[in-house]
Amino acid sequence: MEMNIYAYKCKKCGHVQYPYRTICRNCHKNEHNEFDIVPLPKSGKLLTYTNLYTLPPDFEVVTLGLGIVELEDGNKITGQLNIDKPKIGMKVKGKVEVVRRDEYNEYMGMIFYPA
Amino acid sequence: MREVYVAGIGITSFTRLEYPLIEIAAYPALMALRDSSLDKIDHLYVANMGAGRLNHQTGLASAVVDNLSLTPAGADGIENGPASGASAIKQGFLAVASGMHDVVMVIGAEKMREVNNLEATEFVATLTHPLAEYIYGVTLPSLAGMFTRLYMEKYGVTSRHLAMVAVKNHANAMLNPFAHLHEPITIEGILDSPEAATNNPFVADPLRFFDCCPVSDGAACLILTSAEVARKCGRPMVRLAGVGQATDTHAVHDRKDPTELLAVREAARQSFAMAKLKPTDVNVAELHDAFTILEIAESEEVGFFPKGQGHIALEKGLTKLGGQLPINTSGGLKAKGHPVGATGVGQAHEIVQQLRGEADKRQVKNAKIGFTCNFGGFGNNVVCLTFVREN
User: Domain boundaries in chain A?
Assistant: First the structure.
């Protein structure tokens, strides 16, 4: 089964937000958990990026690519990049994979590849 | 509201300090009490971000008020990330302005060097959104790196401009005995020479080592009082005339335009409105340059220069000592140091020294109006203060 990152669509106004907020940023009118859970699209364009060289303790790599991607539906997401030479504006495609491992857990998130 | 004055100030060196956190916090308080000739206070606010996690110390305000033999004065701890310092000053302002208290002590204190740099960076990274940022390995330097790249693309800022901020602030820090880095640097040494790649490696590209603030220990203190008490203290009358605070989205990607720091813009607007002043009235400013790009971006957002023109003002030398509007005369977070919870109080300390005419070799001539911008998270919680010298 293909995995997704989910966004929250307000049942009152239809606004899609990611990440989760208890109160809809657009209409402020929803009751608790009054959202439909919708998968975020995986394709988009790279808005900005960095290669991080001073890594948090859980990461045993030399450098980590990180970026903000504007997805097809206009929502934005932060993710890891698996792209040799990233460029602002390039088309990218995401996969949901393990992005972090610590002693107890694996965390799933979006990793972007060149489209 | 009553008018609120700064009657006493104190500071430690921002560096690696070997004392326990409680004593680090107490030292500038002693200086501020001596400075103001006061020996009693009504209330204490202690700003700190990491004591519980880094120093195995909770309830810091209670510990410090007793260490200073100031019990039974009330004491509160304030944790608001890297904006804790100015947040605590704001609480002190409200307490005096409301008439509830006449004498309020505000301390910002942090001891980060208890752990190594990577652990300190990881601790600060807990500010980020837990699910949408943190799990990916996002840290504050990486948010700043992404911000810088977009800023460069949009406004033509270059690595040279970033290096100019670092060179200017290191030069200012040379004149500040309390600064962390007493290390003059040159553009050649950190950018142009063959050794530059070794001297100044990437941290989160395009940001390099010398674009990032050091991890510091340190503390600073302000005593805020009513006009009546301040006059009795006999120090030059510096009024805290404007206080503004605003917030922005937790996750940086959630902003319509991630190069806009809307919380900075709004906090500055509120601060100037309360003080009935304009950005062009300011003679000296301390901006939160945890990363060099932030000095440029904040100088635009607070209204000193038009959007996209901050790096041009820097190029023209407007923001250096002797320029039209000197920024970060203390050395800034970049070179004075950044003990996170203490920083906002440290910025105010520098401005009060400047407005009193006590800033020695880094004194801005005839400085009457000063401004600070204390930036929490990656711009999601910002406090701006405006100070005015009277008489």
Answer: 6-39, 43-114
